[in-house]
Design a protein that fits this description.
- Catalyzes the NADPH-dependent reduction of 7-cyano-7-deazaguanine (preQ0) to 7-aminomethyl-7-deazaguanine (preQ1).
- One of its GO terms (biological process) is tRNA queuosine(34) biosynthetic process.
- It catalyses: 7-aminomethyl-7-carbaguanine + 2 NADP(+) = 7-cyano-7-carbaguanine + 2 NADPH + 3 H(+).
- Keywords: Cytoplasm, NADP, Oxidoreductase, Queuosine biosynthesis.
- Belongs to the GTP cyclohydrolase I family. QueF type 1 subfamily.
- By secondary structure, the protein is an alpha+beta fold.
- The chain has a domain of 98 residues: GTP cyclohydrolase I, C-terminal domain/NADPH-dependent 7-cyano-7-deazaguanine reductase, N-terminal domain (GTP Cyclohydrolase I, domain 2, 2-Layer Sandwich).
- Helices cover 18% and strands 35% of the residues.
- It has a four-stranded antiparallel beta sheet, with helices on one face.
């Protein structure tokens, strides 16, 4: 196999740094291991961000997410770790990561974590309003 999981995230320059715009991604194949039982946990991740100078390169993001497949992590911890890694890498104006975890023991877990750059305000009138995402019907196109 030539492609391997990796913690190395890559970036590219924001093609429109003077504009506030939202990038949204749906990642339905996230897996890690339950730290208590070792059984696999599955989640759909939803990433939204308003870039500053950099954007996340998608292939490196895919390989980064794949790298969690054999790691034990609580839902809350891994969601916040991923947000922290991504926000630390690209320093976005705004970033939100939502993790919808599949059922475990009859319980569904929904974890939302956010980052906002200090003092960030949308530049345009009317300002960008970032309501909770409504992902129904979002096909990733």
């Amino acid at each position: 196999m030539s492609t391997q999981p990796s913690k190395n995230l890559e970036t590219f320059p924001n093609p429109n740094p003077d504009r506030d715009y939202v990038i949204r991604m749906r990642m339905p194949e996230f897996t890690c291991l339950c730290p208590k039982t070792g059984q696999p946990d599955f989640a759909t991740l939803y990433l939204e961000y308003v870039p500053e100078a950099l954007c996340v390169e998608l292939k490196s993001l895919k390989l980064y997410l794949w790298s969690f497949r054999n790691e034990g992590a609580f839902h809350e911890a891994v969601t916040n770790r991923i947000l922290g890694d991504l926000a630390g890498l690209i320093s976005p104006r705004f970033m939100r990561l939502t993790a919808d975890w599949y059922v475990r023991g009859g319980i569904y877990t929904h974890v939302v974590s956010e980052h906002r750059a200090p003092g960030w305000q949308p530049k345009f009138d009317p300002p960008v309003v970032l309501p909770p995402a409504r992902w129904e019907g979002f096909q990733g196109h």
